[in-house]
């Protein structure tokens, strides 16, 4: 007989999902009400306000798409790309490749600027591409590339796009709540994120925000958006103005309770404080790893605090280490993807997982497993090194 599922309690320090805050888990279990109930609609309005704070924007079109971050990505491309539009994609990891798929499926033409994995996007190479493709309409890139741990200079890249009359689509799935992201100040046109990375929330929702210019472009499309579900012209009837809500789809009601709670916690902590917390724990983890003799993949100036790509030492069995961490310590860290598979581990310090005790626990667990496997590392120095940065 199949019985109720009771998952083990893990510590989630991979590329997402990350640890969910107990307050969010509690909010998810509150009573379900109707999605057109006036009290629910008031909560939807609050989510919008809280998301505007998290994104640092006044954009009216700011809301969570009822689906994972990949759907947020698709929402941006489906609404902004029209058939035959040229889109320049700066690719420096897994997610740029998905952007290409999105553009092509919208009937657009993707111009790829390929970067080696682990590097940030090079603004000079974007400028060259913009000069060579003066008919390009959109520039798209990933702000925080979770597959490699590299952070790109979103402000500079968006400025360049505008100089050449392009709109910008920015993937901020891993940056939102974890490192500085200023949608209005940087003049980002369309941005999407996820709830399971640095917001301490469960997966399954995708906050997005569109500027007035982007909204105008959507309203003036020659052809209908090819996706019915993701068409903003229809979604706006549901999320748009306060009173007149019409049925579009049934919102994931309890999931939105969770997001509401997560965003309240972000507001209570303060964005700047959240960014600092991610930075502080990154420094502690880095100090511990380096004391042990391990090194980080990404150059210091482009390192994401919330995603640490650690080079796997020679002769160490990648999968065996991760398996032992999971079985002996209930600790999940991430594997490398694509060309970095087998070469790096990805240690996430995202949202509620970005805590001092997690840093110390991860260092102790990794040291224990690596010593058991006779890896050539320094024993007994990681925790003191991490502690010394935390005082
Ligand atoms: C996790 C992630 C996504 C996809 O998120 P899902 O919720 O799995 O769809 C997209 N882009 C980046 C940079 C991510 O880290």
Query: Which kinds of small molecule does this entry bind, naming each only once?
Result: pyridoxal-5'-phosphate
Number of helices: 13
CATH fold call of the largest domain: Aspartate Aminotransferase, domain 2
Q: Characterize the main sheet.
A: 7 strands, mixed
Order of helices and strands: EHHEHEHEHEEEHEEEHHHHEHEEHH
Which stretches are low in confidence, meaning pLDDT under 50 for 5 or more residues running?
A: none
Mean pLDDT across the residues is 96
Kindly report how far apart the N and C termini lie: 52 Å
What integer value in Å does the Rg equal?
21 Å
> What number of domains?
2
β-strand amount:
5-15%
- The CATH architecture of the largest domain would be 3-Layer(aba) Sandwich
Which strand order spans the largest sheet, edge to edge or round the barrel?
Answer: 2-10-9-8-5-3-4
**What's the name of the CATH homologous superfamily of the largest domain?**
Type I PLP-dependent aspartate aminotransferase-like (Major domain)
Number of strands: 13
What is the overall silhouette? globular
Q: Which bin fits the share of residues in helices?
A: 40-55%
Protein structure class: alpha/beta
* CATH classification, class level of the largest domain: Alpha Beta
Topology:
Blueprint: E1 11-13, H1 22-28, H2 38-55, E2 61-65, H3 69-80, E3 86-91, H4 94-105, E4 109-114, H5 123-132, E5 138-142, E6 144-145, E7 150-151, H6 154-163, E8 167-171, E9 190-192, E10 206-210, H7 212-219, H8 232-239, H9 253-269, H10 271-292, E11 307-311, H11 318-329, E12 331-335, E13 344-348, H12 356-372, H13 382-390
Parallel strand pairs: 1-12, 3-4, 3-5, 5-8, 8-9
Antiparallel strand pairs: 2-10, 6-7, 9-10, 11-13, 12-13
The structure holds pyridoxal-5'-phosphate (PLP).
Pyridoxal-5'-phosphate binds next to helix 3.
């Amino acid at each position: 007989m199949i019985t109720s599922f009771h998952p083990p309690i893990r510590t989630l320090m991979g590329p997402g999902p990350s640890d969910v805050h107990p307050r969010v888990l509690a909010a998810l279990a509150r009573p379900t009400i109707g999605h057109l109930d006036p009290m629910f609609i008031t909560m939807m309005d609050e989510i919008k306000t809280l998301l505007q704070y998290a994104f640092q924007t006044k954009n009216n079109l700011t809301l969570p798409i009822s689906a994972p971050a990949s759907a947020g990505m698709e929402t941006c491309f489906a609404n902004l790309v029209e058939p035959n539009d040229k889109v320049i994609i700066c690719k420096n990891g897994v997610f740029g490749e998905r952007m290409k798929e999105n553009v092509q499926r919208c009937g657009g033409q993707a111009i790829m600027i390929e970067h080696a994995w682990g590097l940030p996007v090079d603004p000079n190479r974007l400028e060259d591409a913009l000069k060579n493709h003066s008919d390009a309409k959109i520039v798209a890139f990933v702000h925080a590339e979770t597959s490699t741990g590299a952070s790109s200079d979103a402000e500079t890249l968006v400025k360049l796009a505008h100089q050449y009359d392009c709109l910008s689509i920015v993937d901020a799935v891993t940056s939102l709540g974890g490192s500085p992201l200023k949608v209005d100040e940087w003049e980002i046109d369309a941005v999407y994120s996820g709830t399971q990375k640095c917001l301490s929330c469960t997966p399954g929702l995708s906050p997005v925000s569109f500027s007035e210019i982007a909204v105008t472009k959507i309203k003036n499309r020659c052809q209908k958006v090819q996706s019915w579900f993701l068409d903003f012209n229809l979604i706006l009837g549901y999320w748009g103005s306060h009173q007149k809500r019409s049925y579009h789809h049934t919102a994931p009601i309890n999931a939105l309770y969770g997001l509401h709670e997560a965003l309240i916690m972000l507001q209570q902590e303060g964005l700047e404080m959240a960014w600092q917390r991610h930075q502080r724990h990154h420094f502690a983890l880095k100090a511990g790893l380096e004391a042990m003799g391990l090194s980080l993949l990404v150059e210091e100036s482009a390192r994401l605090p919330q995603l640490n790509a650690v080079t796997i030492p020679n002769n160490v069995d990648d999968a065996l280490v991760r398996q032992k961490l999971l079985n002996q310590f209930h600790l999940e860290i991430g594997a490398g993807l694509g060309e970095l598979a087998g070469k790096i581990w990805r240690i996430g310090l995202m949202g509620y997982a970005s805590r001092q005790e997690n840093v110390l626990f991860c260092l102790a667990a990794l040291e224990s497993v690596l010593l058991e496997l006779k890896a050539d590392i320094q024993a007994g120095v990681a925790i003191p090194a991490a502690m010394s940065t935390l005082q």
